[in-house]
Amino acid sequence: AIDCVFYALEDHTITGQLKAVDPDHDPLVFTLINTAAKGTMTLTHPSTGEFVYIPFDHENGRDDLTFQVSDAQLASNTATISMILTPVNDPPEVFSQEMETPENTPLSITLTGTDIDHDVLHFEIISWPVNGMLTGANAHWIYTPTTDYWGIDHFEFVAKDQSSESSQGTIQIRVGVPEADIYVAEDQSVNIVDVLGFQPTIATAPENGSLQQWLYTPHADFNGFDRLGYTWQGSDIQEAIIYIKPVNDPPQILATTPDQLALDEDHSATLHVNVHDVDHELKELRCEIVESARHGQLAVSQMAISYVPVAHYFGKDNFTYRITDGLSYESKQVTITIQPVNDPPIAKALNLEMMEDQSIELPFSATDIEQNALSYSIEMPPEHGKITDNQYWPDENFWGWDQMTYV
């Protein structure tokens, strides 16, 4: 067994092959002696020493393991495998917020975020509010709504460290909760008797909701104003104003989006995500990877996720993604099944030397990653001799070079 050193960036998978020699050229079996401290090490093919090393998230530095090889009778010395993980800068993460302020009233806002590398963060506004003004710098801002404006306003921001930038965060501001007799959040219900303090006689029903047993429920996804007419103790008809506060509805991953992928070894697959959101257009939504695949690479393009497995890997894998509108999200796990395929064997070139008018045995040799039983055949026969039962016989009195091709 021979000491080996492999290099990779933090959070990147290492694939490679351990090294060993055997004077007798016997088939060898590679065995790990101890486990990795900063990741997981798997011998994908113990007969060839091929492996996959997956570092733990955000680990860097040196990780040493040991291994040995054995043939049918003897075990080798213990050799060291050194995994050198070069640290990389991780982008910061920001936190979206949902806030409220009365009409014509400034609001103090503190932008928040975190950085796993503990770098100092600098915040930057990338999309300014439409119905108000921001004053301030870095993480601390004052939002002043436009005079007499009420409704929903928002702005977007990112956090930066010395070399990277976060994904965008959203500050959503509900401005000027209007005067009303009854308040209820979108898609919620309210008992009007509890709010009014008496039991009225309903004169005109609400237009944008239903009233059953004094429980008012707005129509699905409706927000804004509604009203109902009532009398009490013989009074004239009076009107109760109902204000339905808008709320952010999370995007929905439709059932038509599969939660399983199937592909062949050394092939790729793409998941197309089907989404519905009552509050946002599709172009306003983002698809993000929450937990990456362990045995392959993922790439996101709008609402499509492509998966490419590690070379020669077959078996199970999975990843988790989410669809977000900046304030809320829905996530889903995808299970991947990679079916094994037969890899062709690789024949070894032979260079042989012999005496004139004598024969020599042809030691055909090849490697097969699945360790299947192999057979050999001559594809192009020699020009100056013949082959019989794996023996090469040169033509009489011939000397010099001859060649043939086998598979």
TrEMBL record:
What NCBIfam families does UniProt report for this protein, alphabetically? tand_rpt_95
Organism this protein belongs to: Candidatus Magnetoglobus multicellularis str. Araruama
Q: Which domain of life does this protein belong to?
A: Bacteria
Any coiled-coil ranges, and where? none
Cross-referenced Pfam families:
Big_9 (PF17963)
Q: What is this protein called?
A: Tandem-95 repeat protein
The processes (GO biological process) annotated in the record are:
anatomical structure morphogenesis
Q: Which PANTHER family match?
A: EXTRACELLULAR MATRIX ORGANIZING PROTEIN FRAS1 (PTHR45739:SF1), MATRIX PROTEIN, PUTATIVE-RELATED (PTHR45739)
